Amino acid sequence: MSEQQIHRAAANESPYPPPQAVRDAVAAASTRINRYPEVYPTELARAIAAHHGVPVEQVAVGAGGAGLIQQMLHLVARGRRRGEVLFAWRSFEGYPLIAEGMGVPVRRIPLRGHAHDLDAMARAVRRRTKLIFLGSPNNPTGTAIRQDELDRFLARVPRRVFVVLDEVYRDYATDPATADGLATLAGHPNLVVLRSFSKSYGLAGLRVGYAIGHPGPIAGLRGVTMPFLVPEVAQAAAIAALAVEPEYAARRRAIAAERDRVTRALRAAGIPVPDSEGNFVWLPLGERTAAFEATCRAEGLLVHAFPGEGARVSIGLPESNDLLLKVASSGTVAGP
Ligand SMILES: *Cc1c(COP(=O)(O)O)cnc(C)c1O
């Protein structure tokens, strides 16, 4: 058997190892793992607040974006009248997974042409609706919500309903029309912006995410945080990562350029890939999805298949992206 290199393109991870400054920070913090971290990661919250130019009262740090999604759902689930949560479908699998695990009822509003149908979502709001997740860019389709669409949507949704704009891929967006959650917070006390170090900074293994919003909902989120949630090594890595932002920005630009190259090539191969603003592309292959995934696997490329619908493929280094293009033009997926 020949040694085959495996290319991991199934979880939207960064293909780059951490910068030296981040590794050094982790190594230094590792000498103190016999000690508990701070009960709440104050220094990291301050670094995030400074990075985005917001007061620290507007930042809640959590165990990845997923941890904050769980905290948001916790706020919805408690109280005498349990609320329901709305989100588009298909969108992030974590929304129904975490909600259903907590017994929170969910309603899925179908995408229209791979993008959020915000009119349908606004119409779907009813009395028991307490929370709406909007992914922009959306996982797995890559489509982003435009600023004008978000503004119109927020004007229609009652203020008692929380809107979580999940921007964990926002730093990869290059279309200037893409909604900017942080710039939209003013005037929308029910808006909460979700960010994560997993996707923007390639720190998926350390589980650090954060939410930015008005002090009221942020205090609510902090009120349902586990003590000692974020290990000191993770805090140290995240703080060090923010300090080398230009290095990450250059990496994201390289990924976005590769994403656009791959999109053009896939379209040339006859696959109608929607515009992606994330670090991944969506191949709407329908019934051909399973065969495509198997062929990729045989080539050493791991992708995330949704059988019968499509495949989400993370953008990696050019070698990994070229493998995708090789499979896509091989005839396995050339379809009707
Ligand atoms: C990956 C992801 C998250 C959360 O990731 P964490 O690793 O928990 O920070 C949240 N939302 C979407 C849409 C994602 O793809």
Question: What this model shows, in words?
Answer:
The chain has 336 residues and is an alpha/beta fold. It folds into two domains: 7-15 and 246-328, Aspartate Aminotransferase, domain 1, CATH 3.90.1150; 20-243, Aspartate Aminotransferase, domain 2 (3-Layer(aba) Sandwich). Helices cover 40% and strands 17% of the residues. The protein contains 13 helices and eleven strands. The protein has helices spanning 20-30, 42-52, 64-77, 94-101, 118-124, 147-156, 181-184, 197-200, 215-222, 232-243, 245-268, 289-298, 318-328; strands at 7-9, 59-62, 84-89, 106-110, 129-135, 162-166, 191-196, 209-213, 280-283, 301-306, 310-314. The strands form two sheets. It has a seven-stranded mixed beta sheet, with helices on both faces. The protein has a four-stranded mixed beta sheet with strand order 1-10-11-9. The longest helix has 24 residues, at 245-268. The protein is globular. The mean pLDDT is 96. The site of pyridoxal-5'-phosphate has 15 residues, from helix 3 and helix 8.
Topology, pairings included?
Layout: E1 7-9, H1 20-30, H2 42-52, E2 59-62, H3 64-77, E3 84-89, H4 94-101, E4 106-110, H5 118-124, E5 129-135, H6 147-156, E6 162-166, H7 181-184, E7 191-196, H8 197-200, E8 209-213, H9 215-222, H10 232-243, H11 245-268, E9 280-283, H12 289-298, E10 301-306, E11 310-314, H13 318-328
Parallel strand pairs: 1-10, 3-4, 3-5, 5-6, 6-7
Antiparallel strand pairs: 2-8, 7-8, 9-11, 10-11
Helix pairs in contact: 1-10, 2-10, 3-4, 11-13
Pyridoxal-5'-phosphate (PLP) binds at residues 12, 64-66, 92, 94, 135, 139, 166, 168, 196, 198-199, 204, 209.
